[in-house]
């Protein structure tokens, strides 16, 4: 596709913003219902020309990145004045999981694309523009754990951020699909895990 015809990745205004918002809201609605969605199907269901849809989303990765960013935006913008790190993380997990559960279909669709691209990459080469890049929540996780960073060494800080990343990642689908856990139990279990890990990290730091 001619790069000159692609709508640049930026905050849109006017008609472009209304078109983009309409496409994203349509996509999120369809994906959250558990359906799969291509860019062509999105254009048809949005009653927008396929050429226009492809200018906003040249690849499936572009579409899914926009959907995930829209779905997780409240999580990435979450803020709290809570001073206790453990309580702050518990509050965050409660908020984040509510949002993730709300958009579970979109998150699962993004995971499917990531797995498909992993399989494809083993036999062919994906260009950087085709790859779906994950890791939207890194910055907010670093900010959550920032008060502990000076009290722990690099290894313990890394273990904490990796653990929190796992908790906020795909484990929600594992717990639902394999163990049939309900949403509230998944939230409380996640809080229990991170509290235990923080306690262990502090203990390890005191023994150094």
Automatic annotation (TrEMBL):
Organism superkingdom: Bacteria
Gene3D superfamilies documented for this protein: Tetracycline Repressor, domain 2
Residue ranges of the annotated DNA-binding region, renumbered to this chain: 38-57
Sequence ranges assigned to domain HTH tetR-type in this UniProt record: 17-75
MF GO annotations: DNA binding; DNA strand exchange activity
Annotated InterPro entries: Homeodomain-like_sf, HTH_TetR, Resolvase_HTH_dom
Entry keywords, A to Z: DNA-binding
Protein name, per record: TetR/AcrR family transcriptional regulator
Species this chain originates from: Gilliamella apicola
